[in-house]
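Researcher: Structure prediction, please.
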Amino acid sequence: MAANTCQPVVVPGHYNPMFKVDVNVHCPLREALASEADFKVDLLAHSLQLDTFCKQEQFQQALGKVDYHGKTGTSFQNKANLSFCNLQQTLTKYRGVMHEDTYEREPCFAQLFPNVVEYSKTGSTFKRPGTTPIDNYLKQLSHLNHVLTLARQIHEDIRYGEKPKYLAHQVAVLFQAIQAIPSGSELLARHKTNIEENFKMLKSTIADLHEFENSLPQEVEEWLLELTDSISGVVHSMPTQLSQELRPVA
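Model: Predicted structure follows.
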């Protein structure tokens, strides 16, 4: 019995070396740093990456999932060595020759990235330094952005007449977000008190609404609009480094 034959859908072509593309997975994209700003961006990027690897390893050891008797695991060493090598290349390109005390001589570098400084000295072991200034900064920044986002959301929901079914929950989350700010929450202390004093009123007002009612009494809406406007104003009055949105640097 003869088998059916048909033309192949795709005919593979012969390999042509002229189409070869070099893929540099771990090499920097820039051969040279054009300015000091480029250097600082690359330094920050590599330092944050290495710092993240160190924290992951510390977290694993703290959970007891790995125990290398004070040393680090092979997986961590492979990733950290590559990140540290890229960091060294960045420093070498900008300064020409890398000195042992390069990290300590960078402004505030040791305070921001103690893990990186410790790793540069030991390579395979490092101490757990606890919370660093960069941790505190990022935590503060994330909490302030959270508060600002919640205040904006509530404000827009009131303005555009969204159903107030979950409004009490939103205000409760906003209150908790204000409480969670690591520092500087004193600026929003009166807003916390304002929410505490009026929260029961808000819940009872929402509970008394009929099933098809989509709007709150005018005085309640005005209170919420004024509250959220004031919170947004306080956050925006802080330095822009704390109130602006987090965006990629490169």
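Model: The radius of gyration is 28 Å.
Researcher: Thanks, that helps.
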